[in-house]
Structures are given as structure tokens and as C-alpha cells.
Amino acid sequence: MIYTLTLNPAIDYYIDMNNFEEGELNKVNNAYTLAGGKGINVSKVLKNFNIDSAALGFCGGFTGDYIKKHLKEYGIKESFIYLEEDTRINIKLKTDKTESEIAGKAPNISKEKVNELLEFIKNNIKENDILVLSGSVPSSIENSIYKEIINKAGKNVKVILDARDEAFKIGVKEKVFLTKPNKKELGEYFNKNIETTEDIVKYARELIKDGSENVIVSLGKEGSMLITKDEAYIGNAPDGKLISSVGAGDSMVAGIVYGISKNLSLIESYKYAIASGSSTACSEGLTTFENMKKFLENTEIKKIN
Questions:
Q1: CA–CA distance from 221 to each of 25, 172, 241, 251, 294 (Å)?
Q2: How far apart are CA 233 and CA 215, in angstroms?
Q3: Is 250 a catalytic residue?
Q4: Strand 10-16 and strand 130-134: pairing?
Q5: What is the pLDDT of residues 2-41, one digit of tens each?
Q6: What per-residue confidence (pLDDT) applies to 48?
Q7: What is the separation, in whole angstroms, between the first and last Cα of the chain?
Q8: Active site residue: 12, 86, 162, 250, which one?
């Protein structure tokens, strides 16, 4: 079974306008809302690929009800821990020149609710399951939360940790199957300025020593890299017109989970990760399987000597 965890989900309110002027009345061209959160995005892309998963996390209030309803309509199972406070609303603003985000305030999550989540993980996640831990940690939860979750999940669970800052630093040391920092985040982790391919390989290997069995480093329009203990690969960014980068990283995670769930090799799974991320970046919303396959045809991976 595949589980995705989103500790800090949201309703994402997407706004498209020609330009934004602070302090003035601004007119919106298009707007829509979606259930958001990195783990939720992974579950949605997997569903688009006809792969079932269960979405975990916390949600509450009318916004939490919206998220649960949205996932039900999408055909995704969920086992969210219910909160009294409303789940946050994020604003994602796109103009002709820029993309901006306003992150809403997260609800307070009590220790009792955290323990409820930990008990669910302990009692339900089994050997050989895949557990995707994605996104930020609300301020009311300790930064050790990912560490606690990994320990509760037990051995022989493939954990993918896609987070940053202190929660990532603590969690990765518990041994995970895969992490997916971008170049900037990898530099932040080691407090280093990372520029060259050699730098990326060097510090990804240091991250492997810290506990990540495999590392994918996102390089934006320059593609990405996959580094293991013994080998390193660079993947291209297949050609396409960039529409929005929102959800592209989550789609990469979904792509590699798809490959793993189909018992493909890590390299073949990495191809699906590249194609999925690129397809979402060139789509309005998250990628479909058919669109992903078009990018898969133009995906190239080269081994670095």
C-alpha cells in the first residue's frame, strides 16, 4: 500500500491576472480552488496514473471538509485526523511576469492529535509499504515529527522524505529510501554554496552518509540528478512550454513512486519522475498519464563518470 502524509494541507486558491498592483483594486482573469498540500498532490498524480494511495494528515473546519470531499470525488482514500480549527487557505497568484504565493496560517495541532496520527501509522503501515512524507511542519508540532513517524512505521517501509529545514535534518538520519532536495535546499542543508555538477554529487553523497539511500536533486530548467552510493546520473528537462511550476516537484515524487510500485528499477522509475515533473510544469494543473507519456518519450538519462 502507498501512503502520503501532509501535515499542513490547505485549500489552494489559484488566481490568474495580467498584473498585480499593491494597494490598488486588482481584477482577476481566472480563479479556481483545489485541495492542496504536497502529499495530497502526490496522491492525485498517482490516481491520474491509476495507482491507489491513502492520504494522511490533519484537517478541520469547513476547509477541511472541502478537502475530504475533494479527495472523495477524486477517488482517493483518506484517513485524516480531525481538528476543530479550520485548515488553512493558500493563495497562488500568477501574473504575466511572476508567480507568487501567500501561505495561510496553520491550525493548532495538539499533542493528543499527533499521538493519534502516530498510532494510526503504527497500526496500519506494514512491511514493504511506501510512505511519502511531504511538506512543511506546522509550528504547533515538534520538528522531530518525521523522525517519530519513521520510527513508528518500522523497518522495511520505503520512506520518501520531501521536506526541508530542521524537520528534514532530524528525519533523514532515521534512514530513508529517497530524498528530493533542489540545489538550493541541498546547499542550505550543508551551509554551502553548491554550483557545479561535482559539488552536487559530492554533497548528495554526504546526504547519503547521513541517512538517505538515494537522492534526487532538482535543477529546474537544467533538469535533475539522481545520486546513489555508487553511481550518479543526470536527467534532462524535456522540452515544453512552462505554464506553472506548482506541483512539479510533487509530480516527480509521484513518478518515482509509480515506477517503484510497478517493480521497475530505480533508473526506470527516475525516468517516470522526470517525465511527470516536466509534464505538470507544462500543464494547467497536475499531469495526466497520457501527457506524462509524451514527455517520457523525450526523457534522457546519462551516467556521470
A1: 34, 27, 11, 15, 18
A2: 11
A3: yes
A4: unpaired
A5: 999 999 999 989 899 999 999 999 999 999 888 889 999 9
A6: 97
A7: 36
A8: 250
Amino acid at 211: G
Angle between helices 38-48 and 248-261 (to 10 degrees): 50
d(CA 92, CA 124): 34
Q: What does pTM read for this prediction?
A: 0.91
By the 8 A CB rule, do 165 and 184 touch? no
238-301-277 Cα angle (round to 5): 40
Give the helix ranges, DSSP H, for 92-164: 111-124, 145-153
- Report the alpha-carbon distance of residue 62 to residue 50 in Å, rounded: 29
pLDDT classification of 237: cutoffs 50, 70, 90: confident
The residue type found at 35 is A
Q: Please tell me whether residue 239 adopts helix, strand or coil conformation.
A: coil
Q: What is the per-residue pLDDT across 243-301, written as a single tens digit (0 to 9) for each? A: 878 789 999 999 999 999 999 999 999 999 999 999 998 888 899 999 999 999 999 99
Q: What is the sign, positive or negative, of the torsion defined by CA atoms of 119, 1, 168, 209? A: positive
Classify residue 227 as left (phi > 0), alpha (psi -120 to 50) or beta: beta
